[in-house]
Each structure stands twice: as structure tokens, then as C-alpha cells.
Amino acid sequence: MIRRPEIGAFIVMMIIIVALAIASDMKAFNALGLKNNIKIIAQYGIIAIGASLLMIAGEFDLSIGSMIGFAGMSMALMLKWGLPFGLGEATPFMAFAITLAMTLTLGWFIGTVVVRSGLSSFIVTLAFLFFLRGTTEVGFRLINGSTQVSGLPDYKENSWFANILGGEVFGWFYDAWNAIGRWITQDWVFEARLTIEQINALALLNINRRLEQWVTGFDARFMWFIIIALVAYFILSRTQIGNWIYATGDNKESARANGVPVNRVKIGLFMFTAFCATMFAACQVFDTNTSDAAKGNLMELFAIAIAVVGGTLMTGGFGSVLGVVFGAITVGLVANAVFFIPSIDGAWFRVFLGTILLAAVFANERIRKRITGGI
Amino acid sequence: MAEPYLRVEKLVKKFGPFTALNGVDLEIHAGEVHALLGDNGAGKSTLIKTLAGVHEPSGGQIYVEGKPVNFRSPRDATAAGIGTVYQDLAINQLMSVTRNFFMGREMKGAFGTLKMDEMDKIAHEEMLKIGIDFSDPTQAVGTMSGGQRQTLAIARAIYFGAKVLILDEPTSALGQKQQMEVLKTIKRVRARGDIAIIFITHNEIHSKLVGDRYTFLALGQVIGAGTKEELEGQDIRRLMAGGADIAQLEKEFAEM
């Protein structure tokens, strides 16, 4: 139990998966259901991993949601109105690179303010929550005239870079799914009009009503979620920097006394959450070719909630990437459940989230007490 | 007598108008336990912090192996072979024994990866050398007893090159049984012969059990010093209890 803090998150996740499969009559896990669920899980996962690494180092970032809005604005405005200072039209790569440079600088600045001032990161990043959201809205109005950009060209078509952010990935998975479906259904006999049972059965085999392949791939953010999760897992559990992150969050002073560069670790992780927020925004912009000033609203709180549900300690020093992945799956599935079970009120999602969050905090506290000898 | 590893001559430390150390002399020899005793406010903490490089002395001189040294930071002191094990031990409870042992000085392979197996092995061996067979170094420190944590901190300081080990009241805040564990650890480190120990304590019995040489501090000055043979048990007790202060108190009581 102590060794595997993610066991609680894993059990909750399994319960949700089974319950959702039954309640939605498997619709949540048919070809399109899986894609849509993975989409929101990946969105949550990307920012929750950033938030959880920072929490393990003992700090919070409440500016994640506003950073998403800011990054989305920055990319969309450059794509629509060209590069700043009249430097010509922006390619997707340039828009992304310049935005990332800005958000990383902001992350560095937030981190520097936190470690230099010694103020609680809660209040410093709350300030940036307002500051960045306001900047985003003002920026939109000044440059664009309205708080949203829509009707951008579909960059995915021509730009490989836009495609790896907003396009589809793992097409082979759905191709294989479809091939298996065809093999299973080769002897089936269909009337001109399919029955609803047949449609549902075909949906589970990635075949649409016209008996063609239904879904062709996952959203690219699924790949980024996997990459970020693997890298974060590797860094946290296998590298020197991982040891420094744990040491910083557990007891800053003893870490410092042993030569751990505590401040650099924290600033680096504030930059990492800014990076995660930027990836979130980039996937969104290049997927939908739109952006608006409200994007990412409340996402910082979801990120923190998921990190906690995944077993990350509020007080720092403890947590696991695997647990956060389980947390993201759980919360993502429940957030989406209303689409598969139309009879339930969508607001139950927040009731559920509040409940498991509270349960997770108590469970995490128990684990902490057991490790620290019940103090 | 051989040259002491660490020698302190007429050390003075002032904080503004307040004189914390007023000309302290100290000799620390390898393979010996030097018990540093004194009441609260006697200057013990200031003395060890000066030796550990936290404070710069206002006067006097520190010599390591006969050479005068100036510590500007704890890093300088560590580099000169002075390892301090503070009361809070600089240990992180939620982390494993190995991760604590190598905290900030991890063994790295390619891409900054941790050589975890090698580090586990070293942590286990180094703790075994001074008496604790900790079979599972991946266990969280929070599950260890206070005595075992002391051993971890001591083993770590030795492994990373400490020739002088400063133990800041290692037996206070521990239960009886764990105090004995720590004293055994001190004896084992002494038995290696190449490491000098400065043992700070309030406890007369503990100091008599492991001490080879004693220095008593009061109000920033040395009020008594010598080897175990030179100081009679009675003398230690008198100095420990505050010596002159007690005599004064007895007199006051008599007049009441």
C-alpha cells in the first residue's frame, strides 16, 4: 500500500470504467466513444502531470488555466494577423515557437517571483491567474476586435507541424480495429436499413452505418499526453532531477543543506507547467482552428484536483505520474459520461469530482502518516 | 601526542556587542570521541557552527592538519573533512534510505539517470559498517527509528569524506533504547580509528560512556578540559552540573 500510492486511484478508475461501460451500454467504449474519451483524458492529463510535478516539489500553479488562454490567444492572433512588428505571415511552427518562448519566460518569471519573495505560490500564481486572463482578453480586443478567432485555415492539411499537434495519430490502431471488425462481420447479413442493435454492434467494431471504416485515429494530444507522461515518469523516478524534486518538496531546508539547488528545481517546474499549458492550447488551436479568451477557464483547479486524486500529496514530497494518469482517466471519463448516458444531469460530474477529491485527500493523508510514522 | 586533525586556537565569535565565544581552545584527534559539554547558552552551538563554516570567526584561528584554514561557507568546511550532523539531521522522511543517503550527490549514469542499484548497495554497506543492517534501502526513512536515522546521517557524512564528525546532541529527543543505539554507533565509528568525533551532549552518563577527551563550556569560555584520565568522575559531574553556579545556589538555599 505504501509502496504503491496509486493503488487507490487505480481502484477508483476501474470502478468508473466498468460502471460507465454498463451504464452507457458500451457506447462510451465504441470506436468514437473511446476517441472522445481519450481526447478529454489527454487534455486533463497533460496539465495534471505538470501540476503534480510542481506539487511534489511543494508549490501550486493557479495560472495554468489562464496560461492556456494566453497561449491560445497568442497563437491564434499570430496565425490570423501575422507575426508581431510586421515580420510577415506566421507559419504554425513560428506561432508555436514564439508563444512557447513567451510562456516559458512567464513560467520562469512566476517561479522566480515565488522563490525570491518567499511568498506562497498560491497567492503569486493567483495574481497571474487574473493578470494573464485579463491580458488575454485585452490582447484579443486590441488586435482582433473581438474575444475570439474563428475561421482560420485548416493548417493541418499543409503543415506537418500543425498536423502533429492538431491532427490524428495512431491510425493503425483504428485500422486494425476496423480490420478485425470486418473479419468478424464477414458472414453477417444486413438489410438495407440496419437495426439499432446492428448499428451499436458495428460501432463497437469501428464500422459505420454505410459499412465503412468509422474512426480513423486518435487526436494528436493523445500522443503528447503519452510522451509527457513517459518523460515525466522517467525524470521523476529515474533521474537526479527527480530525486531533487522529491527532496525539494519534502523538506526544502534539508534538501538545501545537502546541496540540492532548490530554487532552480522550483523555477524549472513552473516553466514545465507553462509548457504543459502551451501544449494544451496548441493542440486545441490546431485541432479546431479557433481560439477564444475563455479557453482553459478553471483548468488549473481540475489539474490540481486530478493530481490529488492520483495520490499527489498537497504538502509535497510524494506522488506518482502513474497515479496522475489514473486520476486523469477517472475524471475525464466522468466528465464525458453525460454524452453517453443522456438521462443524467451533467452537473453530477462536479458532485462526483468533489466527493472523490475529498476522499483522495483523506486517503493521501493516511498514506503520509503511515510513512512518517504516524506524526 | 600526534598532531590533532583539527585544532582551534583562541576562537572568538561576536554577534554585535554580544560575545558568544571568548577565546576557546580545542583539540580534536582522529580515533577519539571529544565530548563537548555545557549548559544552554554556553556557546556550544556557536562553536560547532563556526567549525561547520556557518559562522565566520571574529578572532582566533582554526587549523586542519596543522594548516590554518578559513571557512567562508559550509561547503568549505565539508571540503576540509568536517561533517556536521545536526539535530534535524537534514533527512527527508518521505524519501527512501538510498535517496536520502545520496540526496544532492546522486550517482549519475547516462542522461542524468540514477545508478539506483549501485546506490542501494553502497547505502546498505555503509550503514552496515557502523552497525545497522538495513536490508531494504528502498524503504522510506519515515519508517525508521530515531536512532536509525542518526546512523543514516552519520554514515552519509562519513561516506562523503568527513574526517571530523560533529554530532549535535544526537541522544536528546530519543528514547532510552535508541540513545543506546546511537552510543553504540559512536563507538563503532571511533573503532575505525581514522575519524574524530565531536559529541555534544547534556548527558553526563552518555559523555562518560563514550568520551575520550572533554571540554566544558560556560559563557563562551572553556571552564575545564582534559582526557578521561585527567578528569575524575567527580569533576565531570561538578562541571556538568554548572560547577560554581551550584555552589552559589546552595549558598542561597542555605540563607533562605
Topology, element by element:
The complex is a heterodimer of chains A (375) and B (256).
Chain A: H1 7-23, H2 31-56, H3 64-81, H4 92-117, H5 121-144, E1 148-149, H6 160-166, E2 168-169, H7 171-185, H8 196-203, E3 218-219, H9 220-238, H10 240-250, H11 252-257, H12 262-288, E4 291-292, H13 299-309, H14 321-340, H15 348-371
Antiparallel strand pairs in A: 1-4, 2-3
Chain B: E1 6-15, E2 18-28, E3 33-38, H1 44-51, E4 59-64, E5 67-69, H2 74-79, E6 82-85, H3 97-101, H4 116-129, H5 146-159, E7 164-168, H6 176-192, E8 196-201, H7 204-210, E9 213-218, E10 221-227, H8 233-240, H9 244-255
Parallel strand pairs in B: 3-8, 3-9, 6-7, 7-8
Antiparallel strand pairs in B: 1-2, 1-4, 4-5, 9-10
Helix pairs in contact in B: 4-5, 5-6
Description:
- The complex is a heterodimer of chains A (375) and B (256).
- Chain A has helices spanning 7-23, 31-56, 64-81, 92-117, 121-144, 160-166, 171-185, 196-203, 220-238, 240-250, 252-257, 262-288, 299-309, 321-340, 348-371; strands spanning 148-149, 168-169, 218-219, 291-292.
- With 375 residues, chain A is mainly alpha-helical.
- Chain A folds into two domains: 7-165 and 219-371, ABC transporter involved in vitamin B12 uptake, BtuC (Orthogonal Bundle), CATH 1.10.3470; 171-216, no CATH class.
- Chain A has a two-stranded antiparallel ribbon with strand order 1-4.
- In chain A, α2 crosses α10 (240-250).
- Chain A is globular.
- The model of chain A has no long low-confidence stretch (mean pLDDT 92).
- Chain B is α/β, with parallel strands linked by helices.
- Chain B has a domain at 6-90 and 163-255: 3-Layer(aba) Sandwich (Rossmann fold), CATH 3.40.50.300.
- Chain B is 36% helix and 25% strand.
- In chain B, the strands form two sheets. Chain B has a six-stranded mixed β-sheet with strand order 6-7-8-3-9-10, with helices on both faces. In chain B, strands 2-1-4-5 form a four-stranded antiparallel β-sheet, with helices on one face.
- The mean pLDDT of chain B is 85.
- Classes of the chains: A mainly alpha (375), B alpha/beta (256).
- The interface between A and B is medium-sized, with 26 and 26 residues.
